[in-house]
Design goal:
Length: about 300
């Protein structure tokens, strides 16, 4: 669960304006991100709010809050958790807040009412927040808009009725690959981690490798054999990068780098692909070490 949370937060931290725009349904309002706040938001369990963004809207400063949920929350239930976050943020920052929860899994958030209520006479409390269930969001509309921060989430969104799951995943990956960003392997790694909530990791890997290795190379015009060798070499290099980026998301960047020499010594593309699938699923350093041993290393 932590890996999905990390991948989600990474997109907000990198592209906060896209999420602020989502909060306001991509309207035409003049909303500008000022900064991302790292808050200390105590609730009963001393949890922290996932993301707090300070923004400028309609000539005043506001807060935009996002909580990412992989599954439903029961202890405490989400309305109580959100009420705690909202009231504490208002108390600390003395700013109006727009609070949102994003449910990643298709079956999560169905019963979330989007508000906390206490109905005691003369002591009524009502605190509302916005609920986004990705499975209910129009994925094609997001692909058309191309907000970089939201594209890695599109495999979890509602696909067109005339498209099967594999076709939709391929379209999402194609769009992600077309986004102009400085660290494409990490970006595609986030899509792979999030997509693994719905899709098989091997399918994700296969499509990423197919779609991201289709760029023309100069060796294609030199000799067919050189082209094939170039493609194989590029595929191995790309897969190694994908593995390290996913491990950095699931574990820690410094931990991921410890595997770099080992991965560079592996020339079998099929074995690297297997390790990429393992990297998507690992929860600890020992998990990936075990995957390496199982592959004969």
């Amino acid at each position: 669960m932590a890996s999905f949370d990390t991948a989600s937060k990474k997109q907000v931290e990198t592209n906060p304006q896209d999420f602020v725009n989502l909060c306001f349904k991509f309207g035409l309002e003049d909303i500008t991100v000022l900064e991302i706040i790292t808050p200390e938001q105590p609730t009963i369990e001393m949890h922290q709010a996932d993301i707090l963004i300070k923004a400028h809207r309609n000539d005043r400063e506001v807060l935009v809050h996002f909580e990412f949920q992989t599954t439903d929350s029961y202890d405490p239930e989400m309305p109580l958790r959100m009420a705690g976050y909202i009231i504490r943020a208002i108390e600390v920052y003395r700013l109006p807040i727009y609070s949102n929860v994003i449910y990643l899994r298709p079956d999560a958030g169905r019963s979330d009412p989007g508000k906390f209520e206490q109905n005691l006479e003369q002591h009524r409390i009502s605190i509302e927040y916005q609920v986004f269930r990705l499975i209910e969001m129009d994925g094609q509309a997001i692909l058309n808009l191309k907000p970089a921060g939201l594209i890695p989430f599109t495999p979890l969104m509602k696909r067109p009725v005339d498209m099967d799951a594999e076709q939709w995943l391929r379209r999402c990956i194609q769009t992600a690959d077309s986004i102009d960003i400085p660290n494409k392997p990490e970006y595609l790694g986030s899509l792979a981690v999030l997509g693994n909530l719905v899709y098989d990791s091997e399918m994700i890997l296969e499509i990423i490798l197919e779609e991201t290795m289709q760029q023309p190379s100069i060796v294609e015009y030199v000799a067919p054999q050189a082209h094939e060798q170039g493609v194989q070499k590029g595929a191995r290099e790309s897969t190694r990068k994908h593995i390290l980026e996913v491990l950095a998301l699931r574990l820690q960047p410094e931990v991921a780098q410890t595997f770099k020499p080992t991965l560079e010594a592996i020339d079998d593309l099929q074995r690297l692909e297997q390790l990429f699938g393992a990297a998507i699923k690992v929860e600890s350093l020992e998990d990936f070490k075990q995957a390496l041993n199982e592959n004969g290393d």
